[in-house]
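quick q for whoever's on today - can somebody do inverse folding on this one?? i tried earlier but teh output was garbage lol. tokens:
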């Protein structure tokens, strides 16, 4: 009998111990369970019960929903409901560590209990991550896509970094995960990881041309900073940027682009840090936070704001109304206490940076010297500044040192100043963006003109201040000027390249200000100011001018197209404004440099300086039959449709509808225009 009683005591003690362990586990959060140190506990019945829940919550698509305490016991009814939901792909996400944490847990239990069902679930989850990636390398918050801000590329709460960290362990074939995918899956993971890093590099935000940190969300098409919830406005983030940089620093076979991204991010962290401020929390009787206050403390460690203004790094705070406030105290208690507005995570970056720099950076200087020539440390992101604070003091020097036929875009940022130089974008320098600090104060000027060049009848084409021959060129926030005055033909900007975007620029000259050529070349000017005298916009390229101001300095002709025969569109002006100096009272819309010229004005405002007849045939009577000059829905004192020359056209609405950006510029270039326009903001 006594042996029976002793045995019962052992059984009871064992049951009590088991109950105690289970109670401890059930009292933990799901995150704490996942982070439990690997070991024999993962072979226990408690771990297996939780693993069963993990399998039940996983959908057939491979991922998991978020905010589920997966260690909690499930009733039979709850289990049946989860089984019924298996084929439902909705609400599956990587937000709030969903899917990421489940993969970690499955790996830990598989190491102790190598059952096929755990391996299968893990691989299915990995496949989900690979399938969810955008072609540009980013990941949405929900996949399949959920309408709203959920489609944005999501760095928020380290969602994308978590995914990339999983893929990195797979690609590096570490022992982090006990489940080993096939070589085919490893190759897919490598490709996905590389694309993800490219996305990170391409979304690093620039302030006045200088790389900084990252935002929490980006538009999945344009890669522009994007808004999420009402209080999550486009902004630079100290928190998300820190984990991104730590990921970049962990890459062994690094690249110049990664080194550059880290280097500039660290400079930005130092610039954006907040000193002498400490967060003080207040708790209720249940231990729940009921207030937060920021207090001055000279001994407080550095902190960083979660939300900073894109152009100034100034912290801001929002309630659910989306209105920016200058301090935490200005927003309501619910958002003040229910959100993390500050972070100290960049301190880990700064602590590791010096050792990392010793391994990868050539020198702690802005440039390195090669063969007695100064070369920018990052050849894809270059700064030109006359005061010596950039990589170069000359725009042409920056262009000449740019890589030939680069595999990615080269951005040359030009600080304010008057650059008295003749600039040429060579044919072997495609994919260049020339971005000024401000269009009024970043000025490229030169003074060549026809008789000064004196190279014969074609001297006009050598008079340019800026000549573009490299395709996929972007210019923004610049003044381009031919300073020679009214001395005959003198080109300010010459475009002899395909896929050119000129945005928010001022183009100044007199006769022949803007020359646009190339039979198949497509060129787009938006929000520009262009002034001149005779034929100040001329050439054979297909050009679209949108929201531009065309300013005539004296009685003359605005456009002189030489559109080749058979080309659908020549010069198209949409939503433009035609203005003039007071001495200019008789200005023609255009005349045919060559007889198949095409020029169309749509929705334009025309000043009274425009002559009633509108168009001139340049003493080429055959042009009345071959040229195509038209207008649609224009306004202003110069819009006298009934008095135009008989051989011009007033378009019908159905005809005007054909003049879309896609039709004029082509679909491929139209998509590039959208991308370049938004990315450079």
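ok took a stab at it. sequence:
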């Amino acid at each position: 009998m006594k042996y029976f009683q002793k045995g019962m005591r052992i059984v009871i003690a064992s049951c009590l111990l088991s109950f105690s362990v289970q109670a401890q586990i059930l009292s933990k959060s799901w995150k704490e369970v996942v982070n439990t140190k690997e070991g024999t506990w993962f072979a226990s019945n408690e771990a297996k019960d939780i693993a069963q829940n993990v399998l039940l919550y996983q959908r057939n698509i491979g991922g998991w929903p978020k905010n589920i305490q997966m260690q909690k016991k499930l009733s039979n009814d709850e289990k049946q409901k989860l089984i019924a939901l298996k084929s439902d792909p909705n609400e599956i996400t990587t937000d709030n560590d969903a899917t990421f944490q489940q993969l970690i847990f499955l790996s830990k239990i598989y190491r102790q209990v190598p059952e096929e069902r755990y391996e299968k679930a893990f691989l299915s989850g990995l496949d989900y991550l690979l399938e969810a990636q955008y072609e540009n390398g980013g990941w949405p918050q929900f996949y399949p896509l959920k309408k709203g801000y959920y489609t944005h590329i999501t760095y928020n709460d380290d969602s994308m970094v978590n995914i990339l960290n999983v893929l990195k362990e797979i690609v590096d074939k570490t022992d982090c995960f006990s489940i080993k995918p096939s070589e085919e899956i490893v190759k897919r993971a490598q490709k996905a990881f590389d694309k993800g890093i490219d996305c990170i590099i391409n979304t690093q935000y620039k302030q006045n041309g200088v790389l900084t940190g990252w935002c929490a969300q980006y538009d999945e098409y344009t890669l522009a900073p994007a808004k999420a919830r009402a209080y999550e406005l486009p902004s630079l983030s100290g928190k998300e940027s820190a984990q991104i940089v730590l990921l970049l620093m962990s890459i062994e076979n690094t690249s110049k682009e990664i080194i550059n991204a880290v280097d500039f991010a660290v400079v930005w962290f130092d610039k954006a840090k907040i000193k002498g401020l400490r967060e003080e929390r207040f708790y209720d009787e249940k231990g729940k936070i009921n207030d937060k206050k920021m207090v001055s403390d000279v001994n407080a460690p550095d902190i960083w704001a979660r939300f900073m203004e894109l152009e100034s790094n100034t912290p801001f705070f929002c309630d659910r109304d989306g209105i920016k406030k200058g301090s935490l105290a200005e927003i309501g208690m619910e958002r003040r206490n229910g959100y993390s507005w500050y972070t100290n995570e960049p301190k880990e970056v700064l602590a590791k940076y010096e050792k990392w720099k010793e391994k990868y950076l050539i020198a702690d200087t802005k440039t390195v010297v090669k063969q007695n020539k100064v070369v920018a440390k990052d050849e894809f992101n270059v700064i030109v500044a006359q005061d010596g604070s950039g990589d170069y003091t000359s725009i042409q020097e920056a262009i000449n040192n740019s890589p030939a036929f680069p595999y990615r875009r080269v951005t040359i940022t030009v600080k304010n100043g008057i650059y008295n130089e003749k600039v040429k974008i060579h044919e072997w320098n495609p994919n260049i963006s020339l971005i000024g600090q401000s269009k009024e104060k970043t000025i490229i000027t030169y003074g060549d003109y026809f008789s000064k060049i004196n190279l014969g009848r074609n001297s006009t084409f050598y008079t340019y201040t800026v000549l573009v021959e490299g395709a996929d060129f972007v210019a923004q926030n610049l003044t381009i000027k031919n300073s020679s005055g009214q001395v005959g033909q003198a080109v300010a900007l010459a475009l002899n390249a395909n896929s050119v975007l000129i945005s928010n620029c001022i183009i100044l000259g007199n006769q022949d200000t803007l020359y646009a050529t190339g039979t198949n070349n497509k060129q787009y000017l938006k929000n520009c100011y262009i002034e001149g005298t005779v034929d100040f916009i001329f050439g054979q390229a297909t050009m679209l001018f949108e929201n531009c101001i065309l300013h005539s300095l004296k009685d003359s002709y605005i456009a002189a197209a030489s559109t080749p025969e058979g080309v659908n569109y020549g010069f198209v002006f949409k939503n433009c404004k035609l203005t003039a100096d007071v001495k200019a009272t008789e200005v023609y819309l255009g005349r045919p440099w060559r007889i198949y010229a095409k020029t169309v004005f749509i929705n334009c405002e025309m000043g009274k300086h425009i002559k009633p007849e509108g168009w001139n045939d340049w003493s080429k009577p055959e042009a009345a039959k071959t040229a195509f000059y038209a207008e649609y829905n224009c306004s202003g004192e110069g819009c006298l449709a009934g008095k135009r020359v008989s051989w011009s056209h007033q378009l019908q609405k159905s005809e005007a509808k054909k003049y879309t950006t896609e039709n004029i510029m082509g679909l491929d270039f139209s998509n590039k225009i959208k991308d370049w326009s938004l990315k450079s903001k």
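fwiw Residues 2-27 form the longest helix (26 residues). also The chain has 18 helices and 38 strands. so keep that in mind when u check it
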